[in-house]
Amino acid sequence: MTPKLLLERYRVGDPIGQGRLGTVYRGLDVATGQAVAIKHLRPDLIERDPHRLAQFEHESALLGQLNHPNIVKLHASLRDGQDHYLVVEFLEGGDLRGVLRAEGRLSLPRALRLGIEVADALTRAHHIDIVHRDVSPANIMLTRDGAPKLTDFGLTQLDTRKRITRTEANPDAPHYMSPELLNGESLDPRADIWSLGIVLYELLTGQTPFATDSLAATILRIANAPTPDLEALAPDAPPALVDLIYRMLEKEREARISSARRVGAELEQILYAHESGRNTPLPRRWVSVPSSFDTPAPMEAVTAAHNLPPQATPFIGRARELAEVTALLRDPSIRLLTLLGAGGIGKTRLALASAEQVAAQFAEGAYFVALAPLTTPSALVQTLGHTLGMDFTQ
Length: 394
Prior knowledge:
Strand order of the largest sheet: 1-2-3-4-6-5
Largest sheet: 6 strands, antiparallel
Structural class: alpha+beta
Oligomer: single chain
Strand content: 5-15%
Radius of gyration: 26 Å
């Protein structure tokens, strides 16, 4: 494209990216001196498929509604003859895909902060009945200081009555698509929550959970394969975060966590616990003190010692397994109890819930020792001693 001035205000510069619908150029708002990004819809696409223009205009209309600090800002939607343009804010940090290519995986605090802000952007979109449908690292842009901004709303739907359909899958992001999207079902915000769960998994591990060498095999794994063991790939991830991501990646959407706002709230609690080193104590357990008098027995507060990581949500379901495990822990003849099962079924969360149930019944409380980060057997004793406050150096 020859450099030109659009509406006597926006100067088109060098190309900086290529999207599904056209080319993105660096531009300049000559009225303010501000750098902008200019998306140009390829005219040949309109000739082959007029629906593309409707999709492009749809994105423009949606960005006009979405005023949020973590969503790319629309400056103008322009037409110059047969050419159509979107002028949006220019983001110097590139996209999250480029960051992952360069770094492989992100630190836990950085991943959590990114997740919180993207969840906040989705909360805004979902509040006005917009489902993004294409949440992926390529569509998460970054400011100079690393703050994420969600972009590329061209595949979104306003609601089931107004949605713009698309039959072909996005070739750039099949690994982030929810099972219901791949099945061609109608969508709701839980499709975006699945995609954000995949992004979080990748931020922590450097890989997507269902990736294969072929698109067909990847789709089959998304539909049928269990989520690979996140604890094994990211041993430093807090159990509460592992549990949250598993709930975001429930294949049955009725079982999936349903609110982006709730996802953001849980991520904030996990980040707070990680950065402050603060462990939330168990609630005081009130127990009756036996008495030989007929008057009501006095009550005494018992606080269990523990280092159990805080859980952002209550433990729901699995009552039978919880009862069986706690009964075994209360049995004085049992000195070791091992929970076995495939990765991703919630063994750690069940163990923590069981420990919370019985901690007050043990004089020394209950303690969680993370062994996944260990790489040699020799580190086992030292890790146990450090967690329990024991010194084996003398």
